[in-house]
Design brief:
The complex is a heterodimer of chains A (about 110) and B (about 110).
Chain A: E1 5-7, E2 10-13, E3 19-24, E4 31-37, E5 44-50, E6 53-57, E7 64-68, E8 74-78, E9 87-94, E10 104-105, E11 109-113
Parallel strand pairs in A: 2-11
Antiparallel strand pairs in A: 1-3, 3-8, 4-5, 4-9, 5-6, 7-8, 9-10, 9-11
Chain B: E1 5-6, E2 9-13, E3 18-23, E4 31-37, E5 43-50, E6 55-58, E7 61-66, E8 71-76, E9 85-91, E10 102-103, E11 107-112
Parallel strand pairs in B: 2-11
Antiparallel strand pairs in B: 1-3, 3-8, 4-5, 4-9, 6-7, 7-8, 9-10, 9-11
Classes of the chains: A mainly beta (about 110), B mainly beta (about 110).
């Protein structure tokens, strides 16, 4: 079965640079979520999209933006990178058909800011 | 997560049972979830429970829910070394239109041979 695909898996950037992470959700899933997980931390919700429209926003810095495209893939853009942005970034997708909202997570993109 | 609390660490011997506890805050969460994360990997759904249930069993996993105390537990029977991982409980408050998951701080389970 197809899973959530994230790219790149690893990314190294310098401070003040820009990074873009990509996410390809499971086909026919209608909601995409982005989470940030710092070292030894729990995943923190950043932002979500339902049918290509932003549906919820969490603790996402103003330096970050995201969008979902017509083919349902999503991108997380991070500018003016700071050392504290070093983390694992997870994308997840789900299909809201009622019942439990099961989020399927990708393997994550590890961002290191030097 | 600030709303969902878990003990940080649990060490058990292979073959014993493991019990991981979680306290959540939003009593309106319809479903509660358990996810597993192995080192450097993504989050894998283990199981979930509907809030009207007290217990759910799935092979070696048993979930107990005490809705009055907002307490959730995950019991792993016959724990194996491959069960060593971080376990996150999560709630999904219906107040949030996206039904996002709010995770606990995670419990690191170490299984000793």
């Amino acid at each position: 079965a197809a899973g959530v695909i994230q790219s790149p898996r690893h990314l190294i950037k310098e401070k003040r640079e820009t990074a873009t992470l990509k996410c390809y959700p499971i086909p026919r899933h209608d909601t995409v979520y982005w989470y940030q997980q710092g070292p030894g931390q729990d995943p923190q919700f950043l932002i979500s999209f339902y049918e290509k429209m932003q549906s919820d926003k969490g603790s996402i810095p103003d330096r970050f933006s995201a969008q979902q495209f017509s083919d349902y893939h999503s991108e997380l853009n991070m500018s003016s990178l700071e050392l504290g942005d070093s983390a694992l970034y997870f994308c997840a997708s789900s299909l809201g058909v009622g019942g439990a909202n099961v989020l399927t997570f990708g393997a994550g993109s590890r961002l290191t800011v030097l | 997560g600030e709303d969902v609390e878990q003990s940080l660490f649990l060490s058990v011997r292979e073959g014993d049972s493991s019990v991981i506890n979680c306290t959540y805050t939003d009593s309106s969460s319809t479903y509660l979830y358990w996810y597993k994360q192995e080192p450097g990997a993504g989050l894998q759904l283990l199981t979930y429970i509907f809030s009207n249930m007290d217990m759910k069993q799935d092979q070696r996993l048993t979930v107990l829910l005490n809705k009055k105390d907002k307490h959730l537990s995950l019991r792993i029977a016959d724990t194996q070394t491959g069960d060593s991982a971080i376990y996150f409980c999560a709630e999904s408050p219906p107040r949030d239109s996206s039904y996002k998951l709010i995770f606990g701080s995670g419990t690191r389970l170490l299984v000793r041979p």
